[in-house]
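Contributing new records

If you add data, match the layout below exactly. Sequence lines come first and carry their own label; structure lines follow with theirs. Keep one chain per record. Anything else will be rejected by the validation script.
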Amino acid sequence: EVQLVESGGDLVQAGGSLRLSCAASGFTFDDYAIAWFRQAPGKEREGVSCISRSDGHTYYADSVKGRFTISSDNAKNTVYLQMNSLKPEDTAIYYCAGGEDCPIRYLEVWGRGTLVTVSS
């Protein structure tokens, strides 16, 4: 079964750090892109970051650039999102998604999310 599972969500105070993990099973994603999305209460889902295996490029939303870092460990079939200098507005359910490339039309497999809560 092809599956992505997020983990690492927690309650953290503003200014703190957290690392999320996205673990793949049923396939290896050496040739796949993995993206992170988030959805805050009452807001639309938004793209946060993506790592493309085709060219190795990484992408970040302006709201997280300089604070978040995406990385991958192919041996573990896992992608990470390191989140530093967290703000209350980062509070959301975070999802990972995988596919051929970073544009959302290529992202075929989605996880069920992990909750990040940043207190003020």
